Amino acid sequence: MPGAARRRIRLAMVGGGEGSFVGAAHRVAARLDDCFELVAGAFSSDPARALASGIAIGLPGDRCYGGYGGYEQMVASEARRDDGAEVVAILTPNHLHASVATACLKHGLDVICEKPLAVSLAEADALVQLSAAQQRLFIVTHTYAGYPAVRHARELVAGGALGELRVVQVEYAQDWLATDLERTGHKQAGWRTDPAQAGPAGALGDIGTHAFHLLGYVGGAAVEQVCAEVHTFVPGRPLDDHVQALLRLQGGARGMLWASQVASGEHNALRLRLYGSRASIRFDQEEPDTLWFTPLGEPAQRLRRGALDSPGATAATRLPPGHPEGWYEALAQLYRDFAELWHARAEARVPPPWAQATPQLADGRQGLAFIDAVLRSHSAGQRWVSLQ
Ligand code: NAD
Q: Which of 146, 114, 143, 139 is nearest to 333 (CA)?
C-alpha cells in the first residue's frame, strides 16, 4: 500500500544570492530528494542583487524581497500567505543568523540555519527559549553529520564497539586564509575576518565549530572543559585564524581539537580519530565514503559507504557502492532529515531515529558554548575552564 501523498515543503532563503558560496549548495541539497519547493527569498542586502538572484532561478519578482531588512518583510508577508513559505533557510554571514531566526520563529516559521548558530552564547540561549515557546523545528546545518560513514560511526560508538572512550582527536585544517586574502576584496574572506560580521571567533567559529560538532556527534561524550589558545598568524587580521584546545570529556576521555585556516597545503581536512579500550575509528571528510575501524590487536578494516548496514547509514545512502557520494549529498541529508521531522509532526507520529539524528538547535547552542569557553580560556592565559 502506498503511503499518504506528500507535498513539497515550501522553502524560503535569506542570503544565498548570486556570488554566495553556500546558497547554490543549499538549493541543490533541498532539491535532491524532491522534498522542498523554493518559493521566496531575501537573497542579498543589495535590493537589485536580491531581485536579480531570485529572477535568475525562476522566482516571481513579488516573492523576492530586497535590501538589508528585506528578510523581515519577507517573513511577515510569507507568514500571511496561504501559499507562503513554511521554513526559512538562513544563509547569511553569522551576525544576522539570530535576528533572522528570531523573526522566523515569531512568525511561526520553521528554521534551517547555517553554523555558527549565532555570534554569542546569549543570542543562542535566547533562540533556544524562543524556539521552545513557539514549538518550531530548528536544525543547524553541520553538513558533515550527513555523511553515511559519519552516521555509521556514530552508531558504532553508541553501540559500544569502541569500548570505553579514552582518547579523541579532531582537526579541521584549511589554507585558504594563509595570506591576507580579505584585503583583495574576496567576499567570503572579507566578512569571515571582520568581527562585526563573523562574531568574536574567526577560524574558531567558522570551522572549529564543525570539528567540535563532529566530535560530539560521533563520540557521544560531551566536552566538559577546555584549555585553549587562539592565535592570529596573518598580520593585521582582527580575528583568530588558528585555534588549539585540550579537552576533558564527560566519562573521563581526554583529547585535542585544532582548527586552522593557515595550514598550507590543506584544503578541507576535517579528520576525526576516536580511541576506545577495545577499538578505534578514523574518518577523513576528504574521503567521505570510507570509515576505518580497527579492533585492538587486529588489522584495520576499511568500511565503505554502500556496504554500511546501520540504519543511519542506510537512510543516508542514495547510490550503490562504487558510485561516489559527497558533500552535496551530506547537506541534502540534513534537508531530508528535516523533511521527515516536518512530515512526522504533520502526521502526529514519532519521526524515525535517523531523522532525529540531524543536528538541531541544541547542537548549535553547544557550538557557541564551545566558542565562549575557548575565548574565556585564552583570555585567562590558557587556563582550564568549563563549558556553560
Ligand atoms: P557568502 O558571503 O558567500 O554569502 C552570504 C550571502 O548573504 C550573500 O548572498 C549576501 O548577499 C547575503 N546577505 C548578507 N546580508 C544580507 C541581508 N541583510 N539580507 C539578505 N542577505 C544578506 O557567505 P557563505 O560562505 O555562503 O556563508 C554563509 C553562511 O554559511 C555562513 O554563516 C557560513 O558560516 C555558512 N557556511 C556553512 C558551510 C557548511 O559547511 N555548512 C559552508 C560554507 C558556509
A: 146
